[in-house]
């Protein structure tokens, strides 16, 4: 069903569970083999179809395992001034366990913090950060799409965008490292395709396409982070990376599934950080439960524009054309 090119929620949401489907397929094949030894009968057509399904799912998810080549090169940094530590956390608007997050932020001491689903109460709780994070963008909202952004690094050209809908913000700014190296950063939390909220993924696809086209054209080192409400192996995320040229730090390292923190059997990677080839990878960690339905993600990168061995993603004109179409579609 996810292979059907439809924006309707049932087709897009079924992309999420491909790892779970992979496990189920293995169990079914194992049970069929066991039953064959007892009953000496098997439905070969169903078995072959299930094996094909298993191979297809494996191809989709294996890039996000240790058995695949790392897309962002691991680096032992020799220049701490160019290192950047990020924490990206969907806090769950109604979560009141503020101290759990505060402890995590103190422990990991990031340079950049992006908090999502933040309302006025969360804004007041995070006021203390401004002492150590003098640069910030605050967009608290009561509709679960609020954003709070804090940075130790100097920022300029900060903007609050409403790329698709008036009530769903995204943010962008330029971060400045030593020697005035510029980095363009986007913070995103697009609307998911779920019943009761939006039956179609059109809004999410449009927002990601617009950001991908900006990244492709701005000529800067780029970081895109946030809760994208999409899995890494979906067609939408694939189009995003193929259009923008950004790299996925997860590839070759693991799923780092961030949702749901409440159910062991529902685990999807929904919270991301993508980077341009200007960056090397130092560390990434999924942080512990802090009261939200998402786990926070800690990522440690180093800005190395002269990294000669870094893999660069070729931008395909057909993908760009598709992204332009999605960016211009009606919601």
Short characterization:
Keywords: Membrane, Transmembrane, Transmembrane helix. By secondary structure, this protein is of the alpha+beta class.
What topology does this entry show?
Layout: H1 9-13, H2 18-39, H3 44-61, E1 83-90, H4 98-108, E2 112-116, H5 120-125, E3 135-139, E4 147-151, E5 154-161, E6 170-176, E7 182-188, H6 202-218, E8 221-227, H7 235-244, E9 247-248, E10 271-275, E11 279-286, E12 297-303, H8 317-327
Parallel strand pairs: 1-2, 7-8
Antiparallel strand pairs: 1-12, 2-4, 3-4, 5-6, 6-7, 8-10, 9-10, 11-12
Helix pairs in contact: 2-3, 6-7, 6-8, 7-8
Domain Endonuclease/exonuclease/phosphatase: 92-294
Organism: Pedobacter psychrophilus
InterPro entries: Endo/exonu/phosph_ase_sf, Endo/exonuclease/phosphatase
How many E strands?
12
**What is the rounded Rg?**
21 Å
What proportion of the residues form beta strands (DSSP E)? 15-25%
CATH topology of the largest domain: Deoxyribonuclease I, Chain A
**Helical content class:** 25-40%
SSE ordering: HHHEHEHEEEEEHEHEEEEH
Largest sheet: 6 strands, mixed
Number of domains: 2
Could you name the ranges where pLDDT drops below 50 across 5 or more consecutive residues? Answer: none
């Amino acid at each position: 069903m996810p292979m059907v090119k439809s924006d309707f929620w049932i087709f897009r949401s079924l992309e999420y569970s491909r790892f779970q489907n992979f496990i189920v397929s293995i169990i079914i094949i194992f049970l069929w083999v066991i039953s064959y030894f007892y009953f000496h009968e098997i439905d070969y057509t169903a078995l072959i179809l299930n094996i094909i399904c298993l191979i297809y799912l494996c191809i989709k998810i294996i890039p996000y395992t240790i058995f695949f080549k790392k897309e962002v090169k691991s680096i032992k940094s020799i220049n701490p001034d160019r290192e950047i530590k990020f924490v990206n956390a969907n806090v769950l608007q109604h979560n009141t366990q503020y101290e759990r997050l505060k402890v995590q932020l103190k422990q990991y001491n990031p340079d950049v913090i992006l908090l999502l689903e933040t309302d006025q109460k969360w804004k007041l709780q995070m006021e203390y950060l401004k002492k150590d994070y003098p640069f910030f963008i605050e967009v608290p909202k009561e509709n679960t799409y609020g954003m709070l952004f804090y940075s130790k690094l100097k920022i300029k050209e900060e903007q609050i965008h409403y790329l698709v809908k008036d009530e769903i913000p995204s943010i962008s700014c330029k971060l400045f490292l030593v020697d005035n190296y510029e980095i363009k950063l986007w913070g995103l939390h697009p609307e998911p395709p779920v019943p009761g909220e939006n039956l179609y993924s059109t809004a999410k696809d449009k927002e990601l396409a617009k950001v991908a086209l900006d990244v492709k054209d701005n000529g800067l080192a780029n970081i895109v982070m946030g809760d994208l409400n999409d899995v890494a192996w979906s067609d939408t995320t694939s189009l995003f990376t193929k259009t923008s040229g950004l790299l996925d730090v997860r590839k070759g390292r693991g799923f780092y599934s961030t949702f749901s923190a409440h159910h062991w059997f529902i685990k999807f990677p929904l919270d991301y950080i993508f980077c341009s080839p200007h960056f090397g990878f130092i560390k990434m960690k999924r942080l512990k439960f802090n009261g939200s339905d998402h786990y926070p993600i800690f990522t440690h990168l180093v800005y190395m524009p002269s990294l000669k061995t870094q893999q660069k993603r070729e931008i395909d004109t057909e993908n760009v054309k598709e992204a332009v179409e999605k960016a211009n579609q009606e919601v």
